[in-house]
Amino acid sequence: MRYHLEYFNTYQNRWTVIRTVRTCYSAQFDLEKEVRVRISTLLRGACTNGTELKSPFTEIVLPPNNTGTVDSRVQGFVCVFYQKEFMECTWETGLEEPTHSKHSLYFWHREMEQAEECPQYIHTNGVRTGCTFTRESLPEFSAFNICVNSSSPKVALRSAFFSLQVQNHVKPAAIEAVHLESGLERRLQVHWDLPHESIPSHCLEYEVETREEGVGGQQLFQQRNVTREMTLTFLSMGGAQRKCFRVRSRVHQYCADRGFWSDWSRWFCQPEKPPGSESDAVVVCALVIMVIISMVILSLCGLALWRKCKAREGETIPFCPLHKLMEYSKGLTACSPFPNKTRRNK
To answer: Is the peptide bond prior to 56 cis by the omega test (within 30 degrees of 0)?
Structure first.
């Protein structure tokens, strides 16, 4: 005697069929949706003349325990497993959630005897908006289940349930070192170093963005290449004065179903500075020096012209101390160059 078990898998939106001789079976269900299970008995043997007989289905349907409105449920839930070292799960408050409501996160997986609360909450303006998990509490290739409860003294709020596999949420660290080496016939080799992290290098793929610039920084060409190699060779286009690269990485499909791209590295270029940047700086410095010299020459010419005009009036202004010049400007004989001249009475 065997049993024919069917249950509706809401994650895959289809029925899953199990045939077993056991009298118990465990399966994962989305607790926010209806649970539907049906079972029948299969009998084959001498008593049935070798014909398999199947009993009618016995079915059970469990409705979800959804209290509160749909818009009171937390939204924007996302988990990121950074460098396979720690994972952060964050969320936003529901549209109809009161301002003073409180969130609590509980998690469980098959290696745990019972659910546990978040070990370290993330707070934003005094409100719980996420949870941080250490690597030790994150089993890979196993269902990691999360429930976010929302409570408020005013109204009932809806709980949110999530199930994920942490290896599908990995985000590698940004690549910091990219090396460029020139070769023959306008060839340029690009290779990079991986940051120190827990992700095996054979699980990573890379996206390399290339940009070529012409005279004056004009962009001539731009493309992206995805590769699993850590070294690429490029051929520069004719007329390219500068070639720039940046790289990012993620876990490829043979180690996870999906993942997050890392942040881009900064741009690395050859040559490092745009052509003509040094000559432009020299030109600017030369212009500044010319302006200063011109101002000095104009000042000297103005002073000479002023002295010449005074000389034509029959007086020569000697170089005297400042207080003497002030007395002279008031009509006093401080250092008159004409000793035989008599000062007029006021």
So the answer is: no
Fold of 172-277: Immunoglobulin-like (2.60.40)
Q: 3-state DSSP call for residue 232?
A: strand
Give kind and range of the element (H or E) at residue 59: strand 58-62
The CA distance from 290 to 308, in Å, is 27
Specify the residue for token string 């898998």.
9
User: Do residues 250 and 226 make contact, with C-beta atoms less than 8 angstroms apart?
Assistant: no
> Are 20 and 5 within 8 A, CB to CB?
yes
Within 10 A of 9 (CB to CB), how many other CB atoms are there?
15
Amino acid at 37: V
Residue 175 has pLDDT above 80, yes or no: yes
Full-model pTM:
0.70
Q: Do 35 and 29 form a contact (C-beta atoms < 8 A)?
A: yes
Domain 70-170 bears CATH identifier 3.30.70.360? no
Q: Is the pLDDT of residue 72 over 80?
A: yes
What pLDDT score does 187 carry? 85
Residue 208 in tokens:
């390399």
Q: What is the pLDDT of residues 108-131, one digit of tens each?
A: 998 898 999 999 999 999 999 999
Question: What is the β-pairing status of strands 170-171 and 75-82?
Answer: parallel
CATH number assigned to the domain covering 2-62: 2.60.40.10
Same fold, 2-62 and 70-170: yes
How crowded is residue 192: how many other Cβ atoms within 10 Å of its Cβ? 21
Question: Where do the structural domains in the chain lie, given as residue ranges?
Answer: 2-62, 70-170, 172-277
Give the span between the Cα atoms of 121 and 89, in whole angstroms: 10
- In whole angstroms, give the CA distance from residue 120 to residue 96: 26
